[in-house]
Request: fold
Amino acid sequence: MNRLQIQLGFVLILLALVTGLGMPLYTSPRLGLAAHVVGITGGLVLIALGALARAFVLGRRASAVMMWCWVYAAYANWAGSLLGALTGASRLTPIAGAGTTGDALSETVVAFLLQSLALAALVGTVLAVWGFRKLRTAPAPNAVPAAIAAPPA
Reply:
C-alpha cells in the first residue's frame, strides 16, 4: 500500500468537490463540470493504484516513476480543466469548452497541461501493465519435473 498516493488521491477528490461549488462562476461551466469529474475520477484512480502498490512487480525506480506519472496526470488533468473553465481556454477541449476562447497565455498553459498529462498517463499505464505481468515462478526445491512425475502412457 502506498499511503502517500492514497492521500494525494483524497486531496484531489477534495479539490474536485470544491471545484464543483464554483460552477456558476466559471467562464465555461461545462469545463468546470469536466474539472469536477476528472478530479474525482483521477483521485479514485490514485487511491486504487496506491492500494494495489505492492501487487506491481516493478523495481523501486519504476514504481516511483509510475506513481508520480499517475499523480501528475491526475492533477494536471484537473488543473488544466479548471484553468480552462476559469479563463475560457478551449482550444484542446472544443466540446466541453464550446463557445469560449481564452487568451493566448491561458490557451498555451492549458494545452501544455493536457498534452503533458497524456504522455505521463501513457508512461504510467505502460508501467502498470508491465507491473502486472505474469512472472514465471521458480519450481520448489524438492519439486519433481512433470515429465518424471507423470505415469507412462
Observations:
- The chain has one domain: 3-132.
- The CA atoms of residues 95 and 110 lie 15 Å apart.
- Residues 3-132 form one domain.
